[in-house]
Amino acid sequence: MTLLEIKGLTIDIARDSGPARVVDGIDLSVTEGESLGIVGESGCGKSLTMMSLVGLLPNRIRATGGKALFGGRDLLKLSAKELRKVRGSEIGFIFQDPMTSLNPVIRVGDQIAEALVYQKGMTKAAAKAQAVELLALVGIPAPEERANAWPHELSGGMRQRVMIAMGLAGNPKMLIADEPTTALDVTIQAQIVDLVRELKDRLKMSVVWITHDLALIAGLADRIAVLYAGTVVEDAPVEAIFDRPTHPYTRALLGSLPTLAGAAMERLPSIPGTPPEPGRRPPGCPFAPRCGFVQPSCSQSVPKLQAMPGDRRHKVACPVVLEGVA
Amino acid sequence: MTALLEIRGLAKRYDIRLGAFGEKQAVVRALDDFTADIIEGETLSLVGESGCGKSTTGFAILNLQRPSAGSVRYKGQDIAGLDEDAMRPLRRDLQIVFQDPYSTLNPRMTIGEALAEPIRFHGLAPKAEIPARVTRLLEDVGMTPRFANRYPHELSGGQRQRVAIARALACQPRFIVCDEAISALDVSVQAQILNLLLDLQQKYGLTYLFIAHDLAVVRHISDRVGVMYLGRLAELAPSSALFAEPLHPYTRALLSAVPEPNPRAPRNRQRLVGEVPSPLNPPTGCRFHPRCPLARDICKTSVPDWREVGPSHHVACHAVTGPGRTNWEGPA
Ligand SMILES: Nc1ncnc2c1ncn2[C@@H]1O[C@H](COP(=O)(O)OP(=O)(O)OP(=O)(O)O)[C@@H](O)[C@H]1O
Ligand SMILES: Nc1ncnc2c1ncn2[C@@H]1O[C@H](COP(=O)(O)OP(=O)(O)OP(=O)(O)O)[C@@H](O)[C@H]1O
Ligand code: SF4
Ligand SMILES: [Mg+2]
Ligand SMILES: [Mg+2]
Questions:
Q1: Total domain count for chain B?
Q2: What is the pLDDT of residues B64-88, one digit of tens each?
Q3: A141: which chain B residues are within 8 Å (Cβ-Cβ)?
Q4: From CA A102, how far away is CA B331, in angstroms rounded?
């Protein structure tokens, strides 16, 4: 069953010079118990897309079109009060920047406990005990003692794990994790990935995992959506993305990946040029100025996501490569 | 090969208070007995579990947090514990890109001002040239000059991280601590910045202390790699040797946990078992012994010596019996 369905989502930034479009018609869906990986160039709109779902867009940024249906309701139409109820208990959210979302003057255990009191109506004492359990669950050593730490007394990776514990605190139906493991070493990463996978299976929790770490997501996601400049350019089961990356951007992205097996100390291939800024999108395909497969027709109209011949679940927004494989 | 920084016995302890009312005192032994030379023009990487003391090492070397013990020799003087006045002339040479870029960018300063400030402060360019410098710095890290007018909160996570890198480069330093400096970047931008760092190194002989958890990236850019465990160096070796033949049991466990970019890769690799111990109360002897598959009695009581067991290959482990040989048979 589909749990979340985003259709034609657009997000605009209000600038003095007028609105600048940053998310340009995103279509995405997540079924119950599925884990969706979202990858894409820095600045392409991943965080803003997810923040729009839980009503946490920054000032001057608004969802201006489209729908985000979650269990039958359009999240974009909910009041602030209704959204507050959705956050935490139905949708758990792990933010990209742990220092900005942890309150620096509240001990970390108390922050988690507060969320539990608020979301689950626990007593203070029960919430405190549960907070310590959650800290242990995400692999924080000496959790009883660390519950009393101030955020600045924790290492970067520990702060990230506190965030993960808070995201999981309300037993949400869907967990949205925005770069949750950027500061974690591989052993803890593996532990978190195991934990999330287990919760997903046991509680049928859906997971949306934003990351640039392709190796990590390979082991976690069922499906991957590749974003570029505020649009989805490829959406496919994880095996298909790694076996048959099709959109020129996806191919270039995978081509830049350093591996443990490759030659060391050589220049890594990177994609020349920079992505378009919000409000300064070229006409037609947004990747055209950097694309190695570009044709004159590419700048005429914005390509639509289309299924690959023979694989309904593998969708690509590039007529040029689609013609090539047909 | 000359040492840019000679680090001897560097240690950092934090005094903290525990208990609901802060009634108990405790000491976090975040870093102990760190001894190494950082060679001019090299990239030395530090890897290890979250909380093992990598950032602390970077702060202590740069004297951003006063070390509790040890010395750091730079240009003939010991900078460990120098006061800020004495440090000021050295700050330009010794830069850091912090792990948490948001906390270091002034929210009320535009990106352009944030990049111009160090150039002006250290008198690195005449006033008229500063805007051009700022433009160049932004371009170097793959951002358009228009970002100069934006504020930090208007940037995505990866864009902020790139501004932090540009700010360190603005000083034209000799040494940069890059603390998870590229961890929030997609692989293509990552590649672009790594290439930039390599170019600058070749051109100006820059030296890097690179802290990262992505071992594929570490292998790619490092000359040498240090592996830390719970506040101590466990192994330090040329990158090629470390990845080809890791000797310390912890290094082996770490390398086997590296995920592969392949959805069909087997998922049950060797996982480290046991509780991650706490630096509040580190284990006696070898700090890795409660989780080590090879631990013997001696490991519980005596701290293993820091020994050179191969060319520039140092290990702290009782089980490594001699140059390049390891007692993998385990408990006697
Ligand atoms: N508060 C804001 N005001 C103005 N522009 C913003 C704001 N927040 C983000 N932007 C811009 O919107 C675009 C999308 O930002 P978003 O944070 O969604 O990117 P992202 O895909 O999450 O990138 P990253 O991988 O670097 O975190 C970026 O170009 C960014 O500069
Ligand atoms: N200001 C502080 N007060 C008390 N303890 C601290 C402080 N800063 C760091 N610590 C502790 O010192 C230890 C080492 O922290 P450090 O930040 O150096 O780890 P790290 O290796 O950089 O970890 P990560 O990979 O998670 O960033 C941790 O246990 C941390 O909680
Ligand atoms: S000294 Fe002993 S416990 Fe420590 S790593 Fe070596 S064998 Fe394991
Ligand atoms: Mg983001
Ligand atoms: Mg750190």
A1: 1
A2: 999 999 999 999 899 998 999 999 9
A3: 51, 275-278
A4: 45
Cβ atoms of B160 and B102 within 8 Å: the answer is yes
Please count the other Cβ atoms lying within 10 Å of the Cβ belonging to residue A269.
16
Q: Residue B164: enclosing H or E segment and its boundaries?
A: helix B157-170
Can you read off the two tokens belonging to residue B169?
Answer: 């480069």
Cα B134 to middle of ligand 5, angstroms: 28
Question: Domains (ranges, CATH) in chain A?
Answer: 1-90+173-259+268-280 (3.40.50.300), 91-171 (no CATH)
Note down the domain range covering B249.
Answer: 3-39+51-82+223-315
Tens of pLDDT along B123-178? Answer: 999 999 999 999 999 998 888 999 999 999 888 888 888 899 999 999 999 999 99
In tens, the pLDDT along B16-65 reads: 877 666 677 888 899 999 999 999 999 999 999 888 999 999 999 999 99
Of all protein residues, whose CA lies closest to atom 11 belonging to ligand 1?
Answer: B155
In a domain, B46, yes or no: no
Nearest CB among A183, A242, A260 relative to B50 is that of: A183
Q: Kindly give, in sequence order, each residue whose CB lies less than 8 Å from that of residue A294, ignoring residues fewer than 6 positions away.
A: A285, A288, A320
Please answer yes or no on whether B99 and A242 come within 8 Å at the CB atom.
Answer: no
Cα distance between residue B3 and residue A279, in whole Å: 49
Q: Could you tell me if B142 and A274 are in contact, meaning their C-beta atoms sit under 8 angstroms apart?
A: yes
Range list of H helices, B14-83 = 54-61
Residue B11 lies in a domain: yes
Residue with tokens 């410098």: B133
**Which of B100, B216, B257 has its CB closest to that of A99?**
B100
Q: Is residue A305 less than 8 Å (CB to CB) from chain B? A: no
DSSP-based helix, strand, coil % in chain A, nearest 5: 40, 25, 35
Q: Whose CA is nearest to atom 28 of ligand 1?
A: A43
Question: Shortest CA distance to A180 belongs to which of A150, A158, A203?
Answer: A158
Between the CA of A153 and the centroid of ligand 2 the distance, in Å, is 7
Residues in A closer than 8 angstroms to B159, CB to CB, are 42-43
Name the pTM for this structure. Answer: 0.88
Tell me if chain B has a CB within 8 Å of the CB of A79: no
Phi and psi, residue A46, nearest 5°: -65, -50
CATH number for B286:
3.40.50.300
A130: nearest Cα among A141, A145, A115: A115
Token pair recorded at residue B186: 């997609």
Q: How far apart (Å, rounded) are the C-alpha atoms in residues B105 and B300?
A: 45
Q: Is A295 on the interface with B (CB under 8 A)?
A: no
Rounded Cα gap, residues A298 and A287, in angstroms: 9
C-beta atoms of B186 and A158 within 8 A: no
Query: How many separate helices (H) and strands (E) can be counted in chain B?
Result: 11, 12
**Subunit contact A253:B264, Cβ cutoff 8 A:** no
Query: CB-based contact (8 Å) between A42 and chain B?
Result: yes
Q: Ligand 2 within 6 A of A153 CB? A: yes
Is residue B31 assigned to a domain?
A: yes
Whether B232 lines ligand 2, by a CB cut-off of 6 Å, is no
Inside any domain, residue B310: yes
Type of residue at A88: G
Chain B's closest residue to A98, CA to CA, is B100
Residue environment code for B21-35, b if the CB has 16+ CB neighbours within 10 A, otherwise e: eeeeeeebbbbbbbe
The H or E element spanning position A263 is none
